[in-house]
Write a structure and sequence with these properties.
Layout lengths: L1 H21 L34 E2 L5 E2 L26 E3 L2 E7 L11 E7 L2 E8 L2 E6 L7 E6 L24 E6 L4 E8 L20 H8 L6 E7 L7 E8 L20 E8 L4 E7 L17 E6 L7 E6 L9 H5 L29 E5 L5 E5 L7 E6 L8 E7 L3 H4 L1 E7 L13 E4 L7 E5 L39 E5 L5 E5 L7 E7 L18 E5 L4 E5 L3 E6 L22
Antiparallel strand pairs: 1-2, 3-26, 4-29, 5-6, 6-7, 7-8, 9-10, 10-11, 11-12, 13-14, 14-15, 15-16, 17-18, 18-19, 20-21, 21-22, 22-23, 24-25, 25-26, 27-28, 28-29
């Protein structure tokens, strides 16, 4: 308990210092030159300057002191005394076993991030791994003999999504998906998000190329064609040839008919962001900015601040919009509310939803509350018991943590048993050149008054690593996500698994929320033979657990690992699943 209190107290002190810095005058104080009315210019430019090298780094006790405030700087390394000279090619493991490892291009469709889903057909289990135009389908029935059964790419046309090739039609790609069994169709139905691309050439992170100083770049970005919304497919098998398109839906509120739009033309808003929340029944929730007035975000290359939408999926071929919700300050003209946020003018913070709502229990099964992680806007609790009238229950501002993503993921798997949710952002820079991204333990037993009651322990390297803090290992360090609600089987009580970048995959025992501890980990090597050198720092960025077989798939910049842990996950089932995955379990 003493260590938990010390960690929480330290986090509070750092947060207070960071917030104070955020409120201080910025480095330029200049007004932007943006001509677009939906580029907010509410506060003067207060973007952070580079951190003083003397203000952060290794401490005498072997810990690392993070900088209090940093600018967007994802492209550069940030050396400091005590950092390893080379990337670490060793691996470290505790209370886990590597059942199998698969390396190479077939198992790294993208070095930086991928989404995953599982489907079962004819007694076989398949894992999807994909990032937009680059996708793979694996037969993982035998975890020790994984086979690639489908490859999709656009590399032959330079990744240009406006051009068709043998795998993709023009403007098409594999969007972040949920796949659930639909009783009406007696089949799997896949809902794919189509969103604004985040890696773009029209704008850059810094003046004069950012959205505040580059009106031509903003104009070009607004004019780019493509669907902003989602697509719905029936799946009759695991391969792309087995997908049957049921409908294409635009979330652009300016469109006359959302089910009949032209993706070859520009559409407004963000589109559907990340994996839609849908359990195969009536209601679906997505993160979306419906038009360009949803503009309240400081991030220099992002034009939209997504809120949330609810949809009626009674007929998956004809979804119906029920409601749209956002926080005051997210839209153009809501200047007074936006100005109240201490991040206003920092030209750095991502503000708005990055993932859909997190529901501990589906509405169809009596669920009432949903939790929203909104970056620099913090945590909001919504009452979604009537999806046609989503209502704010409470709001909680989290300590500022600039740069990096301040709020992205909420794990709600423990909420029904303990009332605890776990809120986190993730790092965007390497070498710990930003505040540490704590995983906040939030007591939400009273949804009207959620409160931070602690943070999860910070992973530390084993003695054999020869370092005392993972910041020294090079690359990014911090939590990513705990997988998705789409994982097959029922989540094990008291267990959280986070991809932790250069700290591999970390398993936390939260069965006693007052004394959380790290119960197991696997830290793979930093890169493999086929990893591009510019991706060495982006190491373990995902974990996807088969709770029904007690197998954890770890996704890295060089391949995939199948992990087991009888102590933490339970005895692994290496045979074909006893019953097929159909719908997410809660």
């Amino acid at each position: 308990m003493r260590s938990l209190r010390r960690n929480a107290a330290l986090a509070a002190v750092v947060a207070a210092a960071t917030t104070a810095t955020l409120l201080a005058p910025g480095v330029s104080g200049a007004k932007s030159v943006a001509a677009d009315p939906n580029i907010l210019d509410v506060c003067e430019d207060r973007r952070p300057g580079p951190a003083d090298p003397g203000s952060y780094g290794m401490q005498l006790d072997g810990s690392f002191r993070h900088p209090a405030l940093t600018p967007v700087d994802e492209q550069n390394e940030h050396d400091f005394p005590g950092r390893n000279k080379k990337y670490d090619t060793r691996s470290y493991i505790k209370n886990m076993k590597v059942e199998a490892a698969y390396e190479g291009a077939d198992f790294t469709p993208d070095y930086f991030h991928t989404w995953q889903n599982i489907v079962d057909f004819d007694g076989r289990r398949y894992l999807f791994q994909y990032s937009r135009s680059d996708g793979r389908v694996y037969d993982i029935t035998d975890i020790k003999k994984v086979k690639v059964v489908e490859r999709m790419s656009r590399k032959d046309v330079g990744g240009d999504e406006t051009r068709a090739n043998g795998d993709w039609a023009a403007h098409d790609y594999w969007g972040a998906s949920t796949i659930q069994w639909n009783k009406r169709l007696n089949a799997y139905v896949m809902v794919q998000s189509f969103e604004s691309r985040r890696q773009i050439s029209e704008l850059s992170d810094h003046p004069p190329g950012d959205k505040y100083n580059n009106p031509e770049g903003v104009k070009k970005l607004r004019a780019k064609p493509g669907l902003k919304g989602f697509k719905v497919f029936r799946l009759d098998g695991p391969r792309k040839k087995d997908w049957k398109l049921l409908t294409t839906v635009s979330t652009d509120s300016t469109q006359a008919d959302p089910l009949n739009t032209d993706p070859a033309k520009a559409q407004q808003g963000s589109g559907s962001i990340d994996v839609p929340y849908w359990t195969g029944e009536k209601y679906m929730f997505i993160a979306a900015a419906p038009d360009d007035t949803y503009s309240g975000t400081e991030y220099p290359t992002n034009l939209h601040s997504p809120g949330y939408q609810s949809w009626d999926m009674s007929d998956p071929a004809r979804p119906k919009l029920l409601d749209t919700w956002h926080l005051p300050g997210q839209r153009t003209g809501e200047d007074a509310a936006y100005r109240e946020n201490p991040r206003c003018g920092n030209r750095t913070s991502w503000m708005g939803a990055r993932m859909p709502l997190f529901l501990p229990r589906p509405v169809e099964k009596g669920g009432r509350y949903a939790f929203a992680a909104m970056g620099g806007y913090g945590l909001t609790v919504l009452d979604v018991s009537d999806p046609s009238n989503m209502r704010t229950v409470s709001h909680l501002d989290l300590p500022a943590s600039v740069a990096g993503t301040e709020g992205d993921n909420i794990d709600v798997s423990q909420y029904e048993k303990t009332g605890m949710i776990y809120y986190s952002g993730y790092p965007l820079t390497e070498d710990c050149y930003e505040p540490y991204k704590d995983v906040y333990q939030i007591d939400a037993r009273d949804p009207k008054q959620p409160r931070v009651v602690g943070v999860l322990p910070r992973p530390t390297p084993p003695r054999s690593a020869g370092i005392t803090d993972y910041c020294q290992r090079r690359g990014s360090f911090g939590p990513k996500r705990t997988g998705y609600y789409t994982n097959p089987g029922q989540h094990t009580a008291g267990v959280l698994s986070y991809g932790f970048y250069n700290a591999g995959v970390q398993f936390f025992d939260v069965s006693d929320p007052a004394e959380p501890e790290i119960s197991a980990y696997f830290v793979p090597k930093a890169y493999g033979p086929s990893t591009a050198d510019y991706a060495y720092g982006n190491q373990t960025h995902g974990v996807y657990v088969e709770w029904d077989r007690n197998i954890a798939w770890t996704l890295t910049n060089h391949g995939i690992y199948a992990l087991s842990s009888p102590k933490v996950l339970g005895k692994p089932d290496r045979d074909a699943p006893a019953r097929p995955f159909r719908n997410s379990e809660f």
